[in-house]
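=== RUN LOG ===
request id: a7f3
mode: sequence -> structure
chains: 1
length: 32
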Amino acid sequence: MLNAIVPVLEKNIEEMEFCAEKRSLCKNLEFI
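=== RESULT ===
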């Protein structure tokens, strides 16, 4: 179960880091 969750968390972290770089897109990532 955890093995399935980890890639999702890693993807979310990548998207949040992208969001930090492109703040204009943050509102599109609020669902994370």
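=== NOTES ===
Residues 18 and 24 are 10 Å apart (CA to CA).
The mean pLDDT is 67.
=== END ===
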